[in-house]
Amino acid sequence: PGRPGGGSGRRSASGVKGEFALPVTVTPALPAVETFGELEMPAPLKAALTTAGVTVPFPIQAATLPNSLAGRDVLGRGRTGSGKTLAFGLALLARVAGRRADAKRPLALVLVPTRELAQQVTDALTPYARSLKLRLATVVGGMSIGRQASALRGGAEVVVATPGRLKDLIERRDCRLDRVTVTVLDEADQMADMGFMPQVTELLDQVNPDGQRMLFSATLDRNVDLLVRTYLKDPVVHSVDPAAGAVTTMEHHVLYVQGADKYATTTEIAARDGRVIMFLDTKHAVDKLTDHLLQSGVRAAALHGGKSQPQRTRTLERFKTGQVTALVATNVAARGIHVDNLDLVVNVDPPTDHKDYL
């Protein structure tokens, strides 16, 4: 049974295939703000924003923060790069400020689909958590579980986690979620697409039932709609239309090439000035193209699930700093990655899912 204000299950008018209608907010939302200064946030948090040069909130921050800071559940629909990390992060940190976590019992949880996204969220929130003397632990696969268990044993107010590794730590009795009063699901649609929904619901059932929940997703398809109806209580809804955002900010081109010419054309594109990300379907295809590009003199690097986390982090860093100019990745590995001032994205293998394309 859905809670009040849950999703209605009707098709949305947005026209995106398989999407459902946004839930109706029963309790009116608080008005949006124009500056961070207007928000009820701890002074050290406002000072940290000023230090970071963050002065004007993104639309999703301006609309949701007054409500999330007041403890309301939030449903945010927006793509990577819309400013949602601070939209949920500032509220989460402000709500936990002044409290201290006991060993193995965090107070706030951010669930994300991939290790890369966990690292990005951690990097974005660390200076703000530090300003409030809050301890933040990152819990992801591909890294030492012992070190993560030890961070949780030492006490961490905030945990940023991928579902699988968090479940492992709970089973090892290194973590309990019963004191978590603020829970965020980031990129919820990706978690559904990657098959994490059973773990996600299992984890949500373990947090404090009276706590606050925030869910952010680029699209609202069937699985996400179910989460919204089951776990969000009369949420404040803010939607940044992903389709409009994608179309207005980039040019799209389709090249028809014969199979035999595909490598030559791809190499020519990769060798141009500026940075490029190239997407392919499989790890094998990624490795093969990367080798070919390197042999052709292009500074290329591969990113896929077969690489260790330190390798993936290093590759992304080298791409962001320009040491690598062509990042060759599988669609799954690259989901949620945010790179500023990217010149070109090439789908060498066309994506099978419209969300991957957006």
Brief overview:
This protein has 358 residues and is α/β, with parallel strands linked by helices.
Describe this structure in words.
With 358 residues, this protein is an alpha/beta fold. The chain folds into two domains: 36-240, P-loop containing nucleotide triphosphate hydrolases (Rossmann fold, 3-Layer(aba) Sandwich), CATH 3.40.50; 250-357, P-loop containing nucleotide triphosphate hydrolases (Rossmann fold), CATH 3.40.50.300. Helix content is 40%, strand content 13%. The protein is built from 15 helices and eleven strands. The strands form two sheets. It has a seven-stranded parallel sheet, sandwiched between helices. It has a four-stranded parallel sheet with strand order 9-10-8-11, with helices on both faces. The two termini are 33 Å apart. Residues 1-17 and 242-248 have low confidence and may be disordered.
CATH topological fold name of the largest domain: Rossmann fold
From the coordinates shown, what is the CATH architecture of the largest domain? 3-Layer(aba) Sandwich
Distance linking N and C termini: 33 Å
Assign an overall shape.
globular
Spans of 5+ residues with little confidence (pLDDT < 50)?
Answer: 1-17, 242-248
Tell me the total number of β-strands. 11
Biggest sheet, strands in spatial order?
A: 3-4-2-5-6-1-7
The tally of structural domains comes to: 2
Proportion in β-strands: 5-15%
Number of helices: 15
